[in-house]
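This week, study the protein below.
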Amino acid sequence: MASKSENLNVRERILCYAEKLFTEKGYSNTSIRDVCRAANANIALVNYYFNSKEELYKELIKTKTEPMLKRLKEISENDLISSKDKFSALFDVYEEFYEKNQNLPPLIAREIVTNTEISRWFHKNIIAKELRLIKKIFEDAQREGIITDRYDPVTLMNFSMGAIMFILAGTNMVHKVLGKEFMVRGTIREKIENIRELLMNGIKKTNRI
């Protein structure tokens, strides 16, 4: 009988290869047998730990996103943090999250734009929680004059989150088709820092004194 540590390693290995395959092929095009072959595990083990491909996917997503959602909740609901610091901390959360989970942007981007049973679960249980927390941060920042009130906070929020997702996921796909001239260079931290700066300062050229 396998030891507890050996079982834990098998479980982690299954999750690791499931993430890789779901990212590369998508949920619908990945089978349990694909995961088993990649992870060198039998179907009985996958069923033992996760019951089904759907539950394996859900466990993977929840394991990856729960720390990020917890951090957003702490920031959003902390009355001791100023609106300005909350807004800045928002980008720190995403820098840390995507540095630790560099495979996730393409996977998340795919689920955002599809309309399947599993993507609807993803929207309801992950994206909805995330956006409610972010929306409060944007509303507070706008009320305190940190960000413009020319646009409603939901528009600003979607613009910001869309920029992060496209820079981290979309440009990689674009430059593979159109060439390196369309590649956005830099680390994940540098890319998100650039987005933060652009959001706060805009792209309109101003005269420097």
Summary: The longest helix spans residues 117-143. The chain has two domains: 1-51, 54-201.
